[in-house]
């Protein structure tokens, strides 16, 4: 994979899970990495895990003002990755409307705000992290599928609007991350075991599997407008 020495990479949502693995992979390729998220504690731990040359900056992507202030110094990035999201998922008729709107605000509008404000150098890239529910709906998760599908359409439009900046999407299936820390440990383990037993890939996705694909898109100058599915085959079964 290409060298990222001298490149500046911002990972929004880089303090945990897929974002953290992406930040670590970019740093290994020589990039100067900035990770952004809401929690200073998580950022401190992430910077320690990523290593020297990395920086953590507090940002809540649900705030218009915070996103604008974050980029106010005008410093440009070569690559921006957005994996930040906090969504509540339940059946449409069960999920309170305010929770559905907050989910959309976090994942869709959060990414939109960053896409609108982030200075990205020509030839650089913007990458969204969506999710396989956009193409493989599941009962009780229609809102998440709609958010992901909206982001994928946005990314393809942005590939035209932001060129020569390249805009791509990576769509994961189930990935073992702190996203599931809120579940009871036994239920979480059962979910992972069920997935490993039924997925064609025969295993549960790890953050590094998704990070590898994000890095592949970042470093491929011909990749733009792409939606790449990394779901262990879950859209097929
Ligand atoms: N894990 C899966 O199975 C899976 C499957 C398909 C798609 N995805 C998608 O992949 C992306 C990353 O998920 P993950 O599993 O890596 O989750 P995660 O481990 O919970 O990480 C989410 C990251 O986003 C940050 N974040 C949340 N809300 C934010 C906000 N408003 N502003 C700024 N940062 C915010 C969190 O840090 P703070 O708490 O410090 O803000 C954290 O760094 C999400 O878009 C998720 O929907 C995940």
Automatic annotation (TrEMBL):
Keywords: Oxidoreductase. InterPro entries: NAD(P)-bd_dom_sf, SDR_DHRS6-like, SDR_fam. It comes from the Bacteria. Belongs to the short-chain dehydrogenases/reductases (SDR) family. This is NAD(P)-dependent dehydrogenase (Short-subunit alcohol dehydrogenase family).
């Amino acid at each position: 994979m290409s060298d990222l020495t001298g490149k500046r990479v911002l990972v929004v949502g880089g303090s945990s899970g897929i974002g953290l693995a992406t930040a670590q992979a970019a740093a290994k390729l020589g990039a100067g990495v900035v990770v952004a998220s809401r929690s200073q504690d998580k950022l401190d731990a992430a910077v320690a895990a990523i290593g020297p040359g990395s920086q953590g900056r507090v940002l809540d992507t649900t705030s218009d003002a915070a996103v604008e202030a974050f980029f106010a110094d005008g410093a440009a990035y070569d690559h921006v990755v957005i994996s930040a999201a906090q969504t509540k998922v339940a059946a449409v008729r069960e999920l309170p409307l305010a929770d559905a709107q907050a989910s959309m605000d976090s994942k869709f509008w959060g990414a939109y705000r960053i896409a609108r404000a982030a200075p990205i150098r020509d030839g650089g890239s913007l990458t969204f992290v969506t999710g396989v529910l956009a193409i493989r709906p599941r009962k009780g998760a229609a809102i998440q599928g709609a958010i992901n599908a909206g982001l994928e359409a946005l990314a393809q439009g942005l590939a035209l609007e932001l060129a020569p900046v390249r805009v791509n999407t990576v769509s994961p299936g189930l990935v073992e991350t702190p996203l599931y820390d809120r579940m009871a440990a036994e239920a979480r383990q059962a979910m992972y075991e069920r997935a490993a037993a039924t997925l064609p890939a025969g295993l549960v996705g790890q953050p590094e599997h998704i990070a590898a694909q994000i890095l592949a898109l970042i470093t491929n100058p011909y990749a733009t407008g792409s939606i790449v599915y990394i779901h262990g085959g879950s859209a097929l079964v």
